[in-house]
């Protein structure tokens, strides 16, 4: 069987079609394939690669599940030696992995997932099943592919297919680019996977190209079905003020009953809007990623069961929510991109019944999102400082050695958000080939003793060392390096003892203090080279910022444009809708919404020097070294440094909001010292 990579045309064997249908019937009890499932599945069984772009709920999972069960059977049918092996499913969503593995186990499929919440024994059990070829499907998070233990184990296993979920994350043009996905593409090649399948619900033509190129998938392997569902009615309105928006929302919800998701931008808004709707008598709950886990599950469960309930949520809500009868999706604040919009409205009306999607355009919201986007980009100076200090710490680093660092500390010290830091380090790996991230480790562990821990036999050297390297508190913290040097055993062995206590229920164990480890790929750059490197890396971040703003503009243009919304949305994703939908806001009124992109009127807002001084005083002289940081404080945009300086409650916080961000940066540059 050839490995993944561009292939000569794949010949479809009719026996593969029959086999796929038999498996579908036998394991799932379904009688027919949907959309392009059959074409994609048979191509995979016959040895081809594929990329599948089906809307949410379109049935993507079966496209890898059916082939995973078919590969060895098909070998047999073709009279080839039966190649035992596994299909790896790379998915960033732990909750989804859990749901899917449970559902497949119920159907008698040999499946497992490796995620960060598992104990060592179940990981070992999974590794064992991998080696014996018992396992048909293994779900892993993308981060796992950097884990050296995993990579070592997988080297001896035949990888029949790698299925990459949320594959749009590989595209740097996409809204959800995740640098780790670039390493997924490299992994597929490095482990000689027989074939690769990429899955996503949203991809513009450019993102689709990036997926095909990134994973070496031939154009014939692309299967996409139109995004637009004719039961969705797309509406929008420009709102002048928050009061107007809220009043309209209440009216809308009264006129359009049924399960509804109202998307807002911040945690605080979920609570505020939910409270306002509750006061009006609606059955409503707030949902955001900051809620404690039991409450999140409880809210989600209630919504899933309800026939008339409103969830006011950030976009954290919805991934994996497969409720067929959601009647309305409201974007109370504008989505950050048409990709986001399309994914979110795709959750409405999966039962095919009429459903409404309402979007509000408001200048204040756009300004807020724009400022979030700007906040993401660190100054060139920060990037330069970061690289100088990182490389400077290892002046004699040679190819092959492993260096250690702590991303959280770097993020705080150089005022670079963790997402940007990840992007910078991925550039150091994939673009510049200098360092490559490998399995991180934890500097310390803390535990709480359960009943029976005190009577546990701890007379061996490792246990004794652990006890003496422990500091009691509500959680007892253990310095594992100290314990390892006390007893003269390798660190891994000491960690294993600690983990065995946890596995046996003697303690609750919490690892902390991640130490990121990077393998050096070539000698580190000189001072001059670092300057050049910083400029190139920073430029990429700036380009991203501009792209983010363009994406918000494309949402506004769609709603305020002279075209049927559904048609324009389809065109954005490379689909063609022959006729106008006849039911969207534009089709209904025949005229576009009047809405101007905000900002032009801001250009003349003068700089108020007293406010500039207020910011300078609040941050202290030591921090007058980064104009972008100062401008963020002026706008009230959080960043790692402003959080650690606790600036959020000072008078200066947000005092210059309203002044164009770039103008503010220039104003602060005058005051900055090297
Ligand atoms: N051929 C089929 N016949 C009947 N039901 C199907 C078929 N294919 C998929 N389904 C069902 O449709 C539902 C949605 O499928 P699935 O979860 O795979 O969608 P998805 O495309 O992965 O969605 P999402 O983007 O939300 O993850 C599931 O309940 C699945 O069992």
Provide key terms for this protein.
binds adenosine-5'-triphosphate, 45% helix, seven-stranded parallel sheet, globular, six-stranded parallel sheet, alpha/beta, 26 helices, Rossmann fold, 18 strands, 674 residues
CATH architecture annotation of the domain at 14-224: 3-Layer(aba) Sandwich
In helices, the fraction of residues equals 40-55%
CATH topology of the domain at 14-224: Rossmann fold
Mean pLDDT: 89
Identify the strand order in the major beta sheet: 3-4-2-5-6-1-7
Q: Look at the structure and give the CATH class of the domain at 14-224.
A: Alpha Beta
Characterize the overall form: globular
Q: Write down the oligomeric state.
A: single chain
Number of helices: 26
What are the segments in which pLDDT stays under 50 over at least 5 consecutive residues? Answer: none
Main sheet characteristics: 7 strands, parallel
Radius of gyration, in angstroms, nearest whole number: 27 Å
Distance between the termini: 60 Å
Ligand names:
adenosine-5'-triphosphate
Keywords: ATP-binding, Helicase, Hydrolase, Nucleotide-binding, Nucleus
Pfam families: DEAD (PF00270), Helicase_C (PF00271), RecQ_Zn_bind (PF16124)
Enzyme class: isomerase
Family: Belongs to the helicase family. RecQ subfamily.
Question: How does the SSE layout of this entry go?
Answer:
Elements: H1 14-28, H2 37-45, E1 50-53, H3 61-77, E2 86-90, H4 94-106, E3 111-114, H5 120-132, E4 137-140, H6 148-155, E5 159-164, H7 179-190, E6 196-200, H8 205-214, E7 222-224, E8 232-238, H9 242-255, E9 260-263, H10 267-279, E10 284-287, H11 293-305, E11 310-313, E12 328-331, H12 338-345, E13 355-361, H13 363-375, H14 380-392, E14 402-405, H15 407-414, H16 418-431, E15 435-449, H17 461-468, E16 470-471, E17 476-479, H18 480-487, H19 491-503, E18 507-520, H20 527-559, H21 565-572, H22 585-589, H23 609-619, H24 627-635, H25 640-644, H26 661-669
The site of adenosine-5'-triphosphate (ATP) has 14 residues, from helix 3.
């Amino acid at each position: 069987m050839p490995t993944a990579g561009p292939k000569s045309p794949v010949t479809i064997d009719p026996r593969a079609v029959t086999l796929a249908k038999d498996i579908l019937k036998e394991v799932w009890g379904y009688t027919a394939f949907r959309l392009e499932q059959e074409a994609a599945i048979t191509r995979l069984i016959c040895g081809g690669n594929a990329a599948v772009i089906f809307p949410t709920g379109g049935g993507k999972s079966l496209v890898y599940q059916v082939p995973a069960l078919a590969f060895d059977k098909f070998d047999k049918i073709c009279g080839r030696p039966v190649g035992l092996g596994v299909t790896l499913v790379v998915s960033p969503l732990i909750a989804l992995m859990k749901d899917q593995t449970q559902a497949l186990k119920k159907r008698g499929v040999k499946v497992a997932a490796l995620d960060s919440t598992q104990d060592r024994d179940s990981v070992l059990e999974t590794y064992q099943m991998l080696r014996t070829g018992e396992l048909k499907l293994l779900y892993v998070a993308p981060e796992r592919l950097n884990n050296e233990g995993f990579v070592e184990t997988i080297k001896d296993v035949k990888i029949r297919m790698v299925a990459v979920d949320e594959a749009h994350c590989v595209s740097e043009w996409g809204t959800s680019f995740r640098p780790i996905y670039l390493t997924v593409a490299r992994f597929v090649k490095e482990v000689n996977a027989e074939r690769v399948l990429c899955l996503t619900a949203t991809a513009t033509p450019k993102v689709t190209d990036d997926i095909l190129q990134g994973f070496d998938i031939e154009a014939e392997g692309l299967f996409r079905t139109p995004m637009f569902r004719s039961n969705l009615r797309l509406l929008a309105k420009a709102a002048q003020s928050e009061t107007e928006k809220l009043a309209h929302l209440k009216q809308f919800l009264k006129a359009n009953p049924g399960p509804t998701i109202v998307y807002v931008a911040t945690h605080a808004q979920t609570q505020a809007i939910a409270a306002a709707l509750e006061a009006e008598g609606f059955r409503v709950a707030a949902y955001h990623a900051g809620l404690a886990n039991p409450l999140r599950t409880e809210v989600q469960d209630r919504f899933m069961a309800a026939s008339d309930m409103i969830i006011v949520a950030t976009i954290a809500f919805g991934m994996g929510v497969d409720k067929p009868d959601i009647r309305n999706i409201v974007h109370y604040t504008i989505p950050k991109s048409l990709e986001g919009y399309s994914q979110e409205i795709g959750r409405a009306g999966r039962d095919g019944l009429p459903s409404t999607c309402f979007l509000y355009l408001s200048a204040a919201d756009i300004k807020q999102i724009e400022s979030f986007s700007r906040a993401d980009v660190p100054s060139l100076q920060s990037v330069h400082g970061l690289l100088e200090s990182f490389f400077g710490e290892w002046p004699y680093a040679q190819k092959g050695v492993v260096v250690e660092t702590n991303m959280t500390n770097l993020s705080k010290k150089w005022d670079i958000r963790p997402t940007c830091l990840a992007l910078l380090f991925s550039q150091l790996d994939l673009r510049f080939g200098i360092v490559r991230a490998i399995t991180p480790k934890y500097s310390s562990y803390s535990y709480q003793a359960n009943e029976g821990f005190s009577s546990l036999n701890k007379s061996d050297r490792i246990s004794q060392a652990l006890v003496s390297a422990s500091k009691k508190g509500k959680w007892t913290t253990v310095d594992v390096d100290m314990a390892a040097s006390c007893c003269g055993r390798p660190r891994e062995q000491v960690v294993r003892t600690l983990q065995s206590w946890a596995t046996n229920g003697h303690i609750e164990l919490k690892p902390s203090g991640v130490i990121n480890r990077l393998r050096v790929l070539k000698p580190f750059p000189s001072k001059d080279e670092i300057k050049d490197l910083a400029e190139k890396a920073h430029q990429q971040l700036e380009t991203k910022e501009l792209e983010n703003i363009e994406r918000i503009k494309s949402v506004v243009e769609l709603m305020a444009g002279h075209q049927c919304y559904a048609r324009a949305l389809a065109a954005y994703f490379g689909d063609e809708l022959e006729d106008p939908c006849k039911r969207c806001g534009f089709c209904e009124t025949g005229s576009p919404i009047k809405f101007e992109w905000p900002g032009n009127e801001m250009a003349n807002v003068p700089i108020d020097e007293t406010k500039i001084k207020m910011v300078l005083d609040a941050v202290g002289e030591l921090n007058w070294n980064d104009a972008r940081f100062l401008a963020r404080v002026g706008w009230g945009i959080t960043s790692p440094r402003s959080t650690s300086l606790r600036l959020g409650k000072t008078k200066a916080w947000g005092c210059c909001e309203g002044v164009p961000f770039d103008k503010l940066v220039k104003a602060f540059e005058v005051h900055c010292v090297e």
